[in-house]
């Protein structure tokens, strides 16, 4: 086990999402812009500093979100070992990533865990993941007072991003806000559930 020397330099690039089959393959939610790019950053580490090496493991199950990969993890040979990784987040040292060059630029991974608030300061929850279902990036926001939300990641909906303060200011779209004064409809209030 290798401890990271400076945890603040680590970026979360994905999370294990359970076993795939019986031969040790694992489903993995990639948080990189192009999901397969996560395989270029080796080794990855969890929060305790344990190293993981990932390799392509096959096709994602039908109906999976676009950011789900099936991977082989070095040393993981059976379903039990694969399932034991479920929920574990993996990180990469920022130093191995390309330099962004502009202080206003950021990696999607920088958004994971950021708090989302309305322009009035009301808390909406925190960013769990950024998905691309084919029509542009979408923020998955969880642990808020109204359950889970999926929000388009556009300048119109997220006009202010403060990585330093770990906060996103959100202008809720009408379909999320629901009727005036109501704060959200039943569908918007529903928890999106665990990502597959």
TrEMBL record:
GO terms for molecular function: ribosome binding. Residues 109-175 form the Ribosome maturation factor RimM PRC barrel domain. Residues 186-196 have a biased composition (Acidic residues). One of its GO terms (biological process) is rRNA processing. It is found in: Cytoplasm. Keywords: Chaperone, Cytoplasm, Ribosome biogenesis, rRNA processing. Residues 174-196 are annotated as: Disordered. Its main location: cytoplasm. Residues 12-95 form the RimM N-terminal domain. Pfam families: PRC_RimM, RimM. One of its GO terms (cellular component) is cytoplasm. HAMAP family: Ribosome_mat_RimM. An accessory protein needed during the final step in the assembly of 30S ribosomal subunit, possibly for assembly of the head region. Essential for efficient processing of 16S rRNA. May be needed both before and after RbfA during the maturation of 16S rRNA. It has affinity for free ribosomal 30S subunits but not for 70S ribosomes. The PRC barrel domain binds ribosomal protein uS19. Belongs to the RimM family. Binds ribosomal protein uS19. This is Ribosome maturation factor RimM. The gene is rimM.
């Amino acid at each position: 086990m290798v401890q990271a020397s400076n945890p603040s330099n680590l970026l979360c690039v994905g999370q294990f999402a359970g076993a795939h089959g019986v031969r040790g393959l694992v489903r993995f939610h990639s948080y990189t812009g192009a999901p397969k790019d996560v395989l270029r950053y080796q080794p990855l580490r969890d929060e305790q500093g344990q190293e993981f090496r990932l390799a392509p493991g096959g096709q994602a199950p039908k109906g999976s979100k676009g950011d789900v990969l099936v991977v082989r993890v070095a040393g993981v040979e059976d379903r039990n070992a694969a399932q034991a990784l479920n929920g574990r987040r993996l990180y990469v040292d920022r130093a191995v990533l390309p330099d962004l060059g502009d202080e206003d630029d950021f990696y999607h991974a920088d958004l994971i865990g950021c708090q989302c608030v309305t322009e009035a300061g009301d808390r909406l929850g925190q960013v769990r993941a950024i998905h691309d279902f084919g029509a542009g990036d979408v923020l998955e926001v969880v642990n808020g007072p109204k359950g889970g939300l999926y929000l388009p990641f556009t300048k119109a909906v997220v006009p202010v991003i403060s990585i330093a303060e770990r906060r996103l200011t959100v202008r809720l779209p009408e379909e999320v806000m629901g009727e005036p004064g109501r704060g959200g409809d039943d569908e918007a209030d529903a928890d999106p559930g665990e990502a597959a």
